[in-house]
Amino acid sequence: MLQLRHLSKSYTNGRPVLADLSWHFKAGEFVAIMGDSGVGKSTLLNLIAGLDTPDAGPQAEAAPILVDGIAMSGLDDAAATRLRRERMGFIFQAFHVLPHLTLLQNVALPLLLNGLPQQRASAMLAAVGLGGRDNDFPHQLSGGEMQRVAIARALVHQPALVLADEPTGNLDPDTAHSILTLLRAEIKSTGACAIMVTHSQAAAEMADKVLILTKSGIQETTLVN
Ligand SMILES: Nc1ncnc2c1ncn2[C@@H]1O[C@H](COP(=O)(O)OP(=O)(O)OP(=O)(O)O)[C@@H](O)[C@H]1O
């Protein structure tokens, strides 16, 4: 579903953040990515999302990120935006719920942008435990409820790839568990691939597979209690 091939990223100061990463993420898989602070986890998600660009040049792989066989590097801005809008769902702080839209409008946004029927938005709010609150505004919600809206919005258009950056940061353990149970159930029912960056061992335990990102690369690990 998603292939990373010799992916590298350095920032303008020349310091490499990610070097020669290769991995194959499969459809239907819920994968957690862990690793030390500053190792490049968020950078990796941004690259996959097409929000940042991998290193280019004679030594670099020409197509380091393939989504369903499509090279992100071959897409112009409009095509990358379309791919993101149609095929991806984001649970990122930067994509947080919009304060001036109702909960229903927030969740319906990906459907609207993709020209899809909007009925699923209300059902999706109900699925995340916010049934009957369609017309509330984000400021009327707790942090956990807000995160549920973000998840409903990320999943409503049934994306093939869900990218989540610390989706349970700042949530109490019970809320975190119920949110990840929901995320897991959704991706298992749609066959999507979900990639979740987290520092939380409890969150990572909900995934099918845990990868550790280090300076020397990416590898699968088994969590020990
Ligand atoms: N736009 C940027 N310009 C320069 N350096 C950057 C930029 N964005 C990130 N970095 C650097 O890249 C490295 C990786 O950052 P990143 O946010 O991906 O780490 P992380 O693993 O997600 O960390 P954390 O777990 O603390 O969130 C850091 O050293 C950071 O300072």
UniProtKB/TrEMBL annotation:
The record's annotation in SUPFAM superfamilies points to: P-loop containing nucleoside triphosphate hydrolases
User: What's one GO-annotated cellular component?
Assistant: plasma membrane
Q: Write out the entry's keywords from A to Z.
A: ATP-binding, Cell membrane, Membrane, Nucleotide-binding, Transport
Taxonomically, which superkingdom?
Bacteria
Is Nucleotide-binding given among the entry's keywords? Answer: yes
Name the Gene Ontology molecular function terms of this record. ATP binding; ATP hydrolysis activity; transmembrane transporter activity
Pfam family, any one: ABC_tran
Matching entries from InterPro entries are given as: AAA+_ATPase, ABC_transporter-like_ATP-bd, ABC_transporter-like_CS, ABC_transpr_LolD-like, MacB-like_ATP-bd, P-loop_NTPase
* Domain ABC transporter, first and last residues per copy: 2-224
Q: Matching PANTHER family, A to Z?
A: IMPORT ATP-BINDING PROTEIN, TRANSPORTER, PUTATIVE-RELATED
- What is the name attached to this protein's record? Putative ABC transport system ATP-binding protein
Origin organism lineage:
Bacteria, Pseudomonadati, Pseudomonadota, Betaproteobacteria, Burkholderiales
